[in-house]
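Try this one yourself first.
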């Protein structure tokens, strides 16, 4: 369901207001409908009570009164005197309406012996149908009461205390009146246009600069460049936020620049004496001691290179270039094959991505090197996983204890206690590979490979990169 919901702040707020307004108008419509139903019901009961109370005791069976007068004809259709209860076999008394009518008649001082109220189709009432036929035959049909042979009517029969006859009153039941609710619909439309439209205009002043600021934050997170900063716009709060963000970007950029300068100076100042040491150890006569000293210098130099690379990965100087990933992976695997290492290129799918090839080679070398150092027979494959490219490096070996997998991504963390290059290096390879993956908007994950019995049979490293 989330796919159909708006993702932007503007869309979500407008949807919330629209739903709240719809709920309010629906409740208003329901209350209006119930009030209308109650008003109509009260009108029907009052009409029946008025006819039963105001009966002039004219005996229409003997013709007394002006039978030709339209009003007399209308009254003939509304009221009747009978000797038996007006209920027809199969009809049911409407107790709720009867109780309300009884209360009205009692308030008028009428002593009630018996009272029935029920709804009946007009076509089943012989008295009304005969009256309508008689009125039409005399060519002076007056149907202001709205009798419809296809409709229904409400009938009330009253037998007063001490009388033999029943006084029967009838009123037609009105049909549905959709026009009464057209005002609610029109009101809802007007409210939507005025309220939602006005709110959309106001929210646009907030969300437009906010969206621009979000884009700017994403761009700065990728490039760390302060060019293209936003001009403050929108309400005062948004202007202050944009201004503060621009100032923060400038400070961050200045700190990063100072860091690069400092790292460059450190690298230069350390590599120079290391180069001098390489020359001086040539004068050492003991070959074994000289080799150990040279290995230590080389170890320091590689550690220094890793540290400087890790520091610079966040601000790469080389641009992204469209690169065929499977070809790049194959070239790295070939390097190890040429050196005699047991590295296998598995299934590969051709995919072109925007990459920094030098950095990506570094990440792949670190991951394959770890597999060779701690495991055996790494298999490197490239595949497509939805909208991502996936580079998998699987090896056979002891794996990593489950509780230590996340810690292995941290700088200077190794599976071996020693920092000797022969047993694992300085512990920056995985950290650098993860930083390179994040530099490309991707992720690096490690997981143990398990057999059917749950035994660890190796490690798998997955480098997931987004496709363009």
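Now uncover the answer:
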């Amino acid at each position: 369901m989330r796919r159909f919901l708006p993702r932007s702040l503007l869309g979500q707020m407008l949807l919330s207001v629209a739903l709240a307004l719809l709920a309010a108008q629906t409740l208003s419509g329901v209350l209006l409908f119930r009030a209308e139903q109650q008003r109509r019901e009260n009108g029907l009961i009052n009409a029946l009570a008025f006819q039963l109370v105001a009966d002039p005791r004219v005996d229409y069976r003997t013709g007394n009164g002006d039978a030709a007068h339209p009003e007399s004809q209308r009254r003939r259709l509304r009221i009747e005197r009978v000797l038996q209860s007006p209920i027809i076999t199969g009809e049911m008394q409407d107790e709720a309406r009867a109780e309300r009518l009884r209360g009205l008649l009692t308030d008028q001082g009428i002593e009630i012996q018996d009272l029935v109220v029920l709804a009946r189709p007009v076509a089943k009432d012989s008295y009304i149908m005969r009256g309508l036929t008689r009125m039409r035959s005399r060519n002076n049909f007056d149907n202001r009461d709205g009798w419809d042979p296809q409709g229904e009517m409400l009938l009330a029969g009253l037998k007063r205390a001490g009388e033999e006859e029943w006084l029967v009153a009838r009123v037609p039941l009105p049909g549905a009146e959709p026009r009464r609710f057209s005002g609610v619909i029109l009101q809802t439309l007007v409210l939507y246009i005025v309220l939602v439209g006005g709110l959309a205009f106001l929210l646009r002043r907030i969300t437009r600069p906010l969206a621009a600021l979000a884009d700017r934050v994403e761009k700065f997170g990728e490039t760390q460049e302060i060019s293209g900063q936003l001009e403050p716009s929108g309400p005062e709060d948004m202007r202050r936020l944009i201004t503060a963000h621009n100032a923060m970007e400038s400070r961050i950029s200045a700190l990063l620049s100072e860091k690069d300068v400092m790292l460059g100076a450190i690298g230069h100042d350390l590599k120079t004496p290391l180069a001098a040491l390489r020359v001086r150890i040539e004068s050492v006569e003991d070959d074994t001691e000289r080799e150990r000293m040279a290995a230590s210098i080389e170890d320091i130099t590689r550690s220094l290179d890793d540290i400087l690379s890790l520091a610079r990965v966040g601000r790469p100087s080389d641009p992204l270039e469209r690169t065929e990933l499977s070809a790049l992976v194959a070239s790295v695997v070939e390097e190890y094959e040429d050196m005699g290492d047991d590295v296998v290129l598995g299934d590969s799918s051709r995919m072109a991505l925007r990459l920094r090839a030098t950095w990506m080679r570094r990440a792949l070398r670190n991951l394959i090197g770890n597999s060779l150092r701690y495991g055996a027979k790494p298999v490197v494959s490239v595949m497509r996983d939805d909208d991502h490219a996936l580079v998998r490096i699987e090896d056979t070996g002891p794996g990593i204890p489950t509780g230590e997998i996340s810690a292995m991504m941290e700088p200077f963390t190794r599976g071996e206690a020693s920092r000797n290059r022969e047993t694992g290096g300085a512990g920056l390879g995985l950290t650098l590979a993860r930083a390179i993956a994040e530099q490309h908007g991707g992720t690096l994950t490690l997981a143990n490979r398990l057999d059917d019995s749950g035994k660890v049979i190796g490690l798998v490293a997955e480098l997931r990169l987004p496709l363009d």
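Discussion: The longest strand covers residues 456-466. Residues 288 and 294 are 10 Å apart (CA to CA).
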